[in-house]
Design brief:
six-stranded mixed beta sheet, DNA-binding, 14 strands, alpha+beta, 7 helices
DNA sequence: ATGGCTTGAGTGTCAAGA
């Protein structure tokens, strides 16, 4: 079984990349973030023609999350249960017996801003919900754009980024607390090296110089950890014309 | 460089991303 996450930075622009990628990388579930479109614009028909079902929680211009799968998509849930929010950042479903949560975590803009405060409050509510989901679902995967680089190996310039948004101590602690609920950063189960990123700034030739951050993650419960065979970051789509600034992250499970 | 690029909105130019 393969699970993947990809922040596409506008599905309207990126649909050809997504369809090509799915054709080359058949997965059991693909979680998208930043679709940036209302449900009425979501390309259900194009995905269906490619053999995929989909669920979407979208809005105009910003945010928006989707789960795409060739299998039945069951027990669908939208939004955090205890956090009043107009922003479409959460969608979850059960696929082949695995609870799949897709999260587009708040960016936070800059430390000390209102948006940063909103990020920390959002993460606190996210923590509470993940805790309850873990008790309800033994096989749980929490995929998405976390907008947090967990440690200095995940940042191309730790000194320059010190205490900045995406790497600040409160954000890293929030990520750590979520792991401490009983989840594992699947990438780190299989790879210890630094310099492996999932996002590169469009500006300043970030990708060519490998100046990036690892902020897209697939967290898995103990029951899935025992099945985990590999987690990889696919940099191929980042090299295409008009790419998303994020690369897909793919988890392979046995069975 | 409170920068650099990309997207959506909407037709002039800004907000937001990370």
């Amino acid at each position: 079984m393969k699970l993947a996450t990809w922040n596409v930075n506008s599905l309207n622009v990126r649909l050809p990349h997504v369809l090509d990628w799915l054709a080359q990388n058949p997965v059991d579930a693909l979680c998208l973030q930043e679709t940036k479109q209302e449900d009425s614009k979501f390309p259900y028909a194009e995905l269906e023609a490619a053999g995929y079902k989909a669920i979407h929680s979208g809005q105009k211009t910003y945010n928006g999350v989707a789960i795409i799968s060739p299998h039945a998509i069951e027990e669908v849930q939208f939004d955090l249960p205890d956090f009043s929010d107009e922003q479409k950042r959460i969608i979850a479903a059960t696929i082949n017996g695995v609870r799949v949560i897709n999260a587009y975590v708040v960016n936070g803009q800059a430390v000390g801003t209102e948006k940063y405060d909103y990020k920390l409050r959002w993460l606190a509510s996210f923590y509470d919900w993940i805790k309850s989901e873990l008790t309800a679902h033994e096989k749980l995967a929490v995929l998405g754009d976390y907008n947090i680089a967990p440690d200095d190996r995940d940042c191309y310039d730790p000194a320059g980024w010190k205490d900045k948004v995406l790497v600040s101590k409160p954000e890293r602690e929030a990520f750590e607390y979520i792991l401490n609920l009983g989840l594992y950063d699947s990438y780190r189960l299989h790879h210890e090296d630094a310099g492996q990123y999932s996002w590169w700034d469009y500006r300043s030739g970030g990708f060519k110089r490998n100046q990036g951050l690892r902020i897209d993650h697939i967290l898995i419960s103990e029951a899935l950890k025992t099945l985990s065979e590999d987690c990889m970051i696919d940099t191929a789509p980042r090299q295409l014309e008009r790419p998303s600034d994020h690369a897909p992250v793919v988890l392979t499970l046995s069975n």
